[in-house]
TrEMBL record:
EF-1 is composed of 4 subunits: alpha, beta (alpha subunit of the eEF1B subcomplex), delta (beta subunit of the eEF1B subcomplex), and gamma (gamma subunit of the eEF1B subcomplex). Interacts with elongation factor EEF1A1. Residues 78-117 are annotated as: Disordered. Keywords: Elongation factor, Protein biosynthesis. Belongs to the EF-1-beta/EF-1-delta family. SUPFAM superfamilies: eEF-1beta-like (SSF54984), GST C-terminal domain-like (SSF47616). The gene is EEF1B2. This is Elongation factor 1-beta. One of its GO terms (molecular function) is translation elongation factor activity. Residues 139-227 form the Translation elongation factor EF1B beta/delta subunit guanine nucleotide exchange domain. InterPro entries: eEF-1beta-like_sf, EF-1_beta_acid_region_euk, EF1B_bsu/dsu, EF1B_bsu/dsu_GNE, Glutathione-S-Trfase_C_sf, Transl_elong_EF1B/ribsomal_bS6, Transl_elong_EF1B_B/D_CS. Catalytic subunit of the guanine nucleotide exchange factor (GEF) (eEF1B subcomplex) of the eukaryotic elongation factor 1 complex (eEF1). Stimulates the exchange of GDP for GTP on elongation factor 1A (eEF1A), probably by displacing GDP from the nucleotide binding pocket in eEF1A. Residues 96-113 have a biased composition (Acidic residues). It comes from Capra hircus (Goat).
Amino acid sequence: MGFGDLKSPTGLQVLSDYLADKSYIEGYMPSQADMAVFEAVSGPPPADLCHALHWYNHVKSYEKEKARLPGVKKALGKYGPANVEDTAESGATDSKEDDDMDLFGSDEEEESEEVKRLREERLAQYESKKARKQTVVTKSSILLDVKPWDDETDMAKLEECVRSIQADSLVWGSSKLVLVGYGMELKNFQIQCVVEDDEVGTDTLEEKITAFDENVQSMVMAAFNKIQNPLWLSALR
């Protein structure tokens, strides 16, 4: 068992092949096993050994906190594929120390519990950060122009109808009446709104607004702007 000489191309190739379907030397998180192998490698593996190089760079980021990593360092020959001869010089001595520790039986069980606890803590931290991470949502500011049937249409009722349309991704803003032309009493109703693009479209708004056909003749989009500022609600206050 082992990787062979990790300072040789052959040993690095064995290491890269071993990591082809693994993220770490042992288990599912950085441990003293990774540090033991990392310290036996003289430097970054070549680029063509992509699995070994990715692992090396990842473990290197834990150098400053290696003392806090779980596990107990074992002889280098205790890690790696079983069909590779251990050529590490310290193998015999460390192996004897490990055998002495195994006589008590409890160390591995305690270590397993510790690894499990740390893994669960890190998973919980990851899920917490993931939940707090802001989701990028594209929004648009739209100015709608709603045309009544005639100058006798109850415009207050028309506005009430429009604002009655509700959705989590829709916020109504300011509104006003706009004269259609000089010398005419007919006024159109204009209202601003902000929508989430993936949830509410102009077709949906037109369908719902024109459904109030007792007061609404038609609706058009007078202006449309994408919103870049995340504080998009402030524009409507």
